[in-house]
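ESCALATION

Customer reports they have been waiting on this structure for their group meeting. Please prioritize. Original submission:
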Amino acid sequence: MFDLNVLLQQEMDGLKKLGLFREMKRVDSAQGPVVKIDGREVILLSSNNYLGLATHPDVIKAQIDTLKEFGAGSCASRLISGNMNLHEELEKKIADFKHTESAIVFPTGYMANAGTISSLVGKEDLVICDKLNHASIIDGVRLSRARFRTYPHKNLKKLEDILKKEAGYKKKLIITDGIFSMDGDIAPIPDLIKISKRFNAFLMVDDAHATGVLGQTGRGTCEHFNIKEGVDIQMGTLSKALGCLGGFVAGSSPLIDYIRNKARSFIYTTGLPPAIAAGCIKAIEIIEEDSDLRKRLWRNVERFKAVLKDLDFDTMGSETQIIPVLTGDISRTMRSAERLFEMGVFAPGVRPPTVPKNKSRIRASIMATHTDEHIDRVIEAFKKLRNGTMI
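Update from on-call: job pushed to the front of the queue and completed.
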């Protein structure tokens, strides 16, 4: 007799044997530099709240004030009755922030990638991705049914080889992360622009982890490289450095109009809650006005990385606030993460399929709101981990 639960349990038992079964730790506090888990306080070293804006009083006030005026939710697709003035104000704010003609907001970053990619390309088109691109990009390409090719991480010679061999497609789209979410390195955007122009391809950059962090004013990867044009599609999230929720795409007015009319993950979903939109607007204003947050973030990053280098940890070429510590073996990774937790540092281990086989790691992410004392305690924990030969 067919029993779904038995079959599912067998698959989960297989995951447990491989060390790949996932369980969640419950956080009983806000996403600050210190959180409460299992009844005790630990330093949070795994959050994407890079600038601490999730708990910034001005962001919280903006959300509370808007909640009282506009209610808890949008309650409809934005193409029905869920389009509120705050959505349009946020989109204008994003476009101005990213120096583009227009922008469109989705309820999540995943929906932004999946909807945008699957609406822009189809069976007659070619999409080429960096091997380490985020899963939402991969899923968007699969939904599109376009011809899908990948090139080894940042290997531009292989990218060019693919474009030479796959010349007969109607549209060619190159997609890359700006900051790679598991390795913390930065894509070679200027070179990708040159290649895209040479082969008449479009270029899309997922700036989820760069928005608010990279560039002199936090505008992301393009500002980091002082790029004014050449990136056709800029995607980003509102749930990382901005500390709120949502995803966006910024670009030309025709691009945004097209996505608004074609992206199923925009058309057939309820609009972002208005209070969240207000919080995102305030978060962008803070990023524009307060450079000290970004300076504190980078000061913390540089200090932590310097110690890891002295301890001879392999940080896999990280250039940013995302700092992987290579552990390789799955069991060693999970033991190291548990040992860190015992020492008061929450930095979970990352295993396949999120990362390649034998590339398991502790993924540390630094925040502007980590104090010197927090960084001291984290450094001491990693020293003890090294001395105990866990890594």
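Sent to customer with the following note: The domain at 57-289 is CATH 3.40.640.10 (Aspartate Aminotransferase; domain 2).
Escalation resolved.
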